[in-house]
Write a structure and sequence with these properties.
Shape: globular
Distance between the termini: 48 Å
Strand content: 25-35%
Largest sheet: 4 strands, antiparallel
Order of helices and strands: EEEEHHEE
Amino acid sequence: MSERQSSQPSQPQTTLDTFANAHPARDYLIHIQIPEFTCHCPLTGQPDFAHFTIEYIADELCIELKALKMYMWSFRDIGAFHEKVTNDVLDKIVATISPRFARVTARWNVRGGIYTNVVAEHQAEGWIAKPAVDLARFGLANPAAV
């Protein structure tokens, strides 16, 4: 009987890994959902939970998803205000891949009867967004439902 070698468990990391954008001449949106983000309130030490949405239009580089998962995990034991965490994530993405456009939306779970949503955006200098396609016009308001 062969023994299965145990692998090292994953660890949080404070860096993001990248890979080359296979289509750098095209503007296309990369949409990432992170529904289980956790950090701590810096005042009470209580856990805070959020659903993060990261959207970006890459230039030369894209974010490797496992590294992103490990990066987001690195906040688990950190105390930080919602606004700071959201902007820190955006700053890390911009510093790592220099996207044409990036938006980080954090929908924080209720705390003390208050919901908080934080949206932070970056747009590269000189980049002009193309007109959005109105999916509702084609009966496709929710593309995930197709």
